[in-house]
Amino acid sequence: MTELFIAAGGGGDPIGTALTHATLGADADAVVLTYAWERLTVDPFPGPLAPHDFTGLDRDTLPVPLVTTGSQPRGPRGCTLPRLAGDLPTRLALLDPYAGVAGLAEQIGRTARALGADHISVVDMGGDILAHGDEPTLVSPLPDALALASCQLAGVPATVYVAGPGLDGEVPEATLLTRVAGDGTDLDGTLPMWAATVFRWHPSEASTLLAAAAAGLRGPCLTREGAGPIPLTDRSGRLWDLPLTQALDHNRLAQGLLEARPDTLTGAEDVSLRLYGFNEVESERRRAIRRHSARDLIDDETFLSELDSWLHVQRAGHPDARYVSVRCAVESLGYDWRLTEQVRDLLTKHRPGLDAFPLLSLTN
Q1: Do 36 and 81 touch, CB atoms closer than 8 A?
Q2: What pLDDT, in 10s, does the model give residues 307-364?
Q3: Closest CA to 139 of 331, 328, 287
Q4: First-last CA distance in the chain
């Protein structure tokens, strides 16, 4: 039997979804439906990639394209999914949100029928899938809302899983815990080999923090520039589940999308603007204009000196923080995220005291 999952937020959510699949104890094959919707540090163009933005997709196996290790985004766009396809224990299938709510529902429904799946597991990293829309730190509600609305319209029974409440920095943990029931399920604290491989290179912070918390790391962690320290607590490494209808009750944008049934992504953006007062893709367009080129080469001595100085400033400015993500360090110093693996090797050799895999320690 093949199980069907949806990584609701795009970006690094397929990693958290694969960790969720492992935690639920499923030995079955799994397909993860996901958007190719990356942060601007990965893809310099705003909005998600559509299937026509790729070469080498497998278009024959399922009703939606499968991303393989031979897939590539058409330049100059960027995407982490092809490399993830080689590292994750699940297959990755590409959702096309440009088709709107009804189009997404058709993609989901046809895939479920092709796999013989009578249930869908929707996984969201951090929990903003339960956002009400008035949270001041909410920045990316649209992918999650589209997933909820489309699943409801597809008519396949579904469960929504919130992994690592608050770890994406959008809705605080304390707020989210009032919107779920029970104590949650602990993720396996032993990092699978495939996950250890992924976290050496992938820039996802929410999934990285989830794995760190499951492994027992506790305390505030500095993340991407502009976000405050995110606390790793006894709840951060847990997973909560709730029925799709209950998640819909929380998500006003998903309700609006179901009512309006926009047939394009632009139409869905308009619903977000009307209900929440902002258009996520337009916000990405504005940030893209302001982005500066990142350095794509490292001189070891220069980097280590810059890092030492930067860490000194962070420790002074955030005396309670215990950890920092590698992405935060790399990007704050103006380097390209694709240097992450090289940075980890450099630190292992020259700054082993910083290692708190998959994070860096601020207390050593």
Answers
A1: yes
A2: 999 999 999 999 999 999 999 999 999 999 999 999 999 999 999 999 999 999 999 7
A3: 287
A4: 47
The one-letter amino acid at 356:
A
Is pTM, for the whole model, over 0.90? yes
SS3 annotation, the chain: CEEEEEECCCCCHHHHHHHHHHHCCCCCEEEEEECECCCCCCCCCCCCECHHHEECCECCCCCCCEECCCCEECCCCCCCHHHHHHHCCCEEEECCHHHHHHHHHHHHHHHHHHHCCCCEEEEEECCHHHCCCCCCCCCCCHHHHHHHHHHHHHCCCEEEEEECCCCCCCCCHHHHHCCCCCCCEECCCCCCHHHHHHHCCCCCCHHHHHHHHHCCCCEEEECCCCCCCEEECCCCCEEEEEEHHHHHHHCHHHHHHHHHCCCCHHHHHHHHHHHHCCCHHHHHHHHHHHCCCCECCCCHHHHHHHHHHHHHHHHHHCCCCCEECHHHHHHHCCECHHHHHHHHHHHHHHCHHHEECCEEECCC
Residue type, 306: E
